[in-house]
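Hi V.,

You were right to ask for the full record rather than a summary. Here it is.
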Amino acid sequence: MTISPPVSADRVRAIVARFPLTSVLIAGDVMLDQFVVGRVSRISPEAPVPVVEHDHDEYRIGGAGNVANNVRALGGRVELVGLVGDDPAAAILTTELNARGIGCTSLVVDSDRPTTTKQRIVTTRNQQVARVDYESDVEAGGALERGLIDRVTAHLAQADVVVISDYLKGAVTRALVAAIVEQARARKIPVLVDPKIPHIEYYAGATVVTPNHYEAEIATHLRIRTADDAGRAGQVFIERARCQGVLITRGEHGLSLVSPAGEAHYPAVAREVADVTGAGDTVIATLALSLAAGATLAEAAQLANHAAGIVVGRFGPATLSCEELLGEFPEPGPRPEMTARG
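Predicted structure:
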């Protein structure tokens, strides 16, 4: 397997410096992550479950919104297209998006579905007790689908890269992806997809698809245990999805990239793993920003790998800053002075 040379600190700084100049369009399934936080001191007499004494609620942006949040935290401009319900959760989500400077005027309201919400009950020690999901997975059709396509079309003309964030919650349809790929091809900008395997045939023409290794195994019917396994699975995935390249996220084993330029594997760089929730969102956000800023696919994959190594050390969907990313690529120290002998 070919290993790309490490990207230099100077090159990383040049790429990251262009992040604020990039515009990212994200289309997909937006979600609200709610954390009901409390203390546990006893077991319920009604059932063998802990009693959580409520302390406070926390809200975070999830799904495609977390991709947008990662882009924004790294300094990029971002517009979000997706579906929300006509409910209090949509109001909370919109408030959170606006507070972070994420463009969300193109969210389409569907009064027949709830805003996708994942309500997690957790202890003050960050131990998850239970999760309740409020969602509808019915694919958008008719006026809703046309509304999504119209909003994508309106913003794609100014975008430098498009990300499709698919969670099978209804916003990502075959027609929407086809419209994005066609318009992006005309403008010669990349289309990245964070996939769900039941929609794999939707992604034809995408520049890069980013499955995790479980999704890659399901799509290809191949076991992935080594870098060589990932390379073979990547080739099969490309054939099945009819995309140009694939970046397989492999958890503690890092990333494996298969593209027309060849194959490359990047070992994981995480120092401590607290929570992998949302790490895939960080990967595709960093990949998108880097490509839009002029990085090669191999360079973008390396930046994305280091970004993921940072966020998995945090609880829940997390983001990182440009300064933290740059810190992963320190400049080489000064060479020792040479003294003449004799």
